Amino acid sequence: MALSQIAYILAGLTAGGGTIGYVRTGSVPSITAGCTVGALYALGGYRIQNKQPYGVELALLASIVLAGSSIPRAIRTAKPLPIGLSGLALFGLWNFGMAWKNNVSAR
């Protein structure tokens, strides 16, 4: 699967999840964080797709932000939602981290 596709899928999942969190509980931080991280993933995917610089780095930043907020919460609460978000973050960290390490952004 192409890196841009991974970024777009993660963008949809995080933005959609934040929106669902807002609709279900009225949580403004959920929609704000979900849409912000989703926008970073989407912008990264767009830049990767168009072979522009810093696409992989933007998607990696989104993964770092998501991991930084979800992994400690998953460890502390052991609830399914933070665990799922942590899985998404780790998936993004692996894919975009390996791409950044191998300098794939130019392809």
What does the model show?
By secondary structure, the protein is an all-alpha fold. The chain contains four helices and no strands. The radius of gyration is 14 Å and the shape is globular. It starts with a helix and ends in a 6-residue tail after the last helix. The mean pLDDT is 94.
Report helical residue fraction. Answer: over 70%
Strand tally, please?
0
Average pLDDT metric: 94
Rough shape? Answer: globular
Number of helical segments with 4 or more residues: 4
What fraction strand?
under 5%
Short description:
By secondary structure, the protein is mainly α.
Sequence-ordered SSE layout with sheet pairings:
Blueprint: H1 3-25, H2 28-49, H3 55-77, H4 80-101
Helix pairs in contact: 1-2, 1-4, 2-3, 3-4
List keywords for this structure.
4 helices; single chain; 84% helix; 107 residues; mainly alpha
